[in-house]
Amino acid sequence: METKQLIITIITILLILGLYYLTLLPRKKQEKEIKSMQDNLKKGDKVITYTGLSGIIEEVLEDRIILKTYPDDVKLSIEKWAVAGIDDRTIEIKK
Questions:
Q1: What's the pLDDT at 20?
Q2: How far apart (Å, rounded) are the C-alpha atoms in residues 82 and 66?
Q3: Where are the domains of the chain?
Q4: CATH for 41-95?
Q5: For residues 58 and 66, is the Cβ–Cβ distance under 8 A?
Q6: Among 72, 49, 68, which residue's Cα sits nearest to residue 57?
Q7: Residue 1 pLDDT grade (very low, low, confident, very high; cuts 50, 70, 90)
């Protein structure tokens, strides 16, 4: 009976470790990549925020960026953590 309980305990521990590696580690890796991208933002990068704003970085400050939006060139000051990613879409200017 004692051996059976030991096997069940080992299987439970292995299942918990397996779930950890399948769920938490990929998320931590993605968060690390996003943080690295946010730390390496530079003037001229086209970015998109978590709220859907997109534009070109005009200036990079310590913890904020100045974002110039299209089409009216409105400048916004936003936190770096609000940047979701680099925007690789092209902007077509209609004349």
A1: 86
A2: 12
A3: 1-40, 41-95
A4: 2.30.30
A5: yes
A6: 68
A7: low
Q: 69 by DSSP, 3-state: which?
A: strand
Do you find a cis peptide bond into 71, omega within 30 degrees of 0? yes
Locate 65 and state its tokens. 């960026």
For 38, other C-beta atoms within 10 Å of its C-beta total 18
Rounded to 5°, angle at Cα 55 from 37 and 49: 50
Total residues belonging to the chain = 95
Report the pLDDT averaged over residues 76-83: 95
Q: Do residues 65 and 57 lie in contact, with contact meaning Cβ atoms separated by under 8 Å?
A: yes
Angle at 46 between CA 38 and CA 30, to 5 degrees: 35
The pLDDT, as a whole number, for residue 37 is 93
CB atoms under 10 Å from CB of 65, counted, come to: 24
